[in-house]
Amino acid sequence: MLTEHLTEAERQYYYMEQCHQWVKEQEEKLGRPLTASVITFGCQMNARDSEKLTGILEKIGYTMVDSEKADFVIYNTCTVRENANLRVYGRLGQMKQVKKKNPSMLIALCGCMMQEPEVVEKLKKSYRHVDLIFGTHNIFKFAELIYRRITENTMVIDIWKDTDQIVEDLPNDRKYPFKTGINIMFGCNNFCSYCIVPYVRGRERSRLPEDIIKEIENAVADGVVEIMLLGQNVNSYGKNLENPISFAELLRRICKIDGLLRVRFMTSHPKDLSDELIQVMSEEPKICSHLHLPLQSGSTRILTKMNRKYSKEDYLLLVDKLRKACPDISLTTDIIVGFPGETEEDFQETLDVVEKVGYDSAYTFIYSKRTGTPAAVMEDQVPEDVVKDRFNRLLDRVQTIAAKVCSRHENTVQDVLVEEVNSQDPSLVTGRMSNNTVVHFNGDESMIGKIVPVYLKSCKNFYYMGEAAADHK
Residues 217, 222, 224, 229: is their CA dihedral positive or negative? Predict the structure, then answer.
C-alpha cells in the first residue's frame, strides 16, 4: 500500500489530498463550492476536537458554513446526559428529509455518544441515511474515513474501544486567531459514580511535554497569546508517561515560552490539586487568576457516594491554601443537586460551602440518571419537586454571592484581552480579564487580540462596563 511507510500524520495528509481531488471534481460537476458544517455538542474538549475536524475539512477543500443544509454535516456529540442523545436523534430525524432533497449530501456522527455500542446499533438499524460514524479515539483518521466513504459508497463505521495513540500534528481551525485550546491529555481514570466520561473517553493518556511545548510555540508564532490547557483532569497529567512529570512542572516549562502572555487550564480535580501546583500558580504571572474547581456536593456523605475521593473539609482546606497563595484568584465550580440519597441536611452542607468559598460563578445541574453509571441504579432517587426547589434555592444563593464577589474590581484598572467587537453595540469591544470576567468597553476592531488596560466603571452582576484606561480621566 502507498501509505505503509508513512507516519500516521503523513498518512492522513495523503488521504486529505485524495479527498481534495474528489471535492474539486464534485465542485466542477455542480458549478459551485462544496460546503460543510460542524455542529458541536458538549464540553471544551469537544470544541477543540471540532476545530480539528474543521481544519481537516478546510484542507480537503470544503467551504465552512453555519447551516445544516450544507453538503457535509458533522455532528460532534456529547453523551454526559441522556437528553443530549435525544437531541441528536431529533436532529437526525429532521436531516432525513433534508437528505432526500439532496441525495449526494453526507452526514457524519462522532464524539462521545458514538462510544456507546447501543447507540451505534440504533444508528445502523434506524438511521441508515448516516454516512460516517466514528468515536473519540480516532478523530485524527477523519480524512481517511471520508476517503473510505466516497470510494466504498456505503455507511462507514469505525469505533475504537480504547487507544494509546495520540496524533496531533494535523490541521485545525481556531475559532480565535489569538487564543486556542491545547490538549495535554485524554481520558479519565476517576469513575465518579454519576459520570459516563471514563467509559467513552477511555483511560488517561498524557501527551509528551516536548510535543505540547512545540505545539504551543507554533501557535504563538502564529499569533496566539493565550492558551487553555485541556484534559478531563489536568492535575493528574504526566503520571502515566515513561518519564513521569507533574502538571506543575509542565506549567513551569510552558510559562517560559516567549510571546505567550496567558495560560489557563481545566478541568482540575480537587483530589489531585497539589501544593506544588498551588505554588506554581502563585509564582508564575502568566497563569491566569482563575481556577475551575468542581465541588459537586458540599456533603462528605454524598461525595463518598459520588466516589469523588475528598471530603468537604479537604475541599475547604484547598480553597484556604489557594486564597493564601493567590489572594486575588477567582474560583468557579460545578454543583449537582438531587444526587440519589441527598437529604435537606446534605443540601445545607452544599450551601455552606457556597457561602464559605464565595464563587465568582457556579455551573449548577439537576442530577439526571445516566444509564451505564453506578448512580443510575442507586436507591433513594430524590423526588423531582424537591430537587427543583433545592436547585432554585442554590441558584439564588450562587447568583447573589457571585454578583457581590464579581464587583470587587469596580473602579480599578485591569488588563483585558480583547476578543471581538460587541455584537449589540459596534462602538464597544468585548474581552476578558485574567480571572475570566467579561468586560465591555469603548474600542474598535484594531484592538482584537491585544491585552489593554481598562478602567472598570460599573459591575453588572457578572460582567463589567468599562472604558479604555487611556481615555479615563
Answer: negative
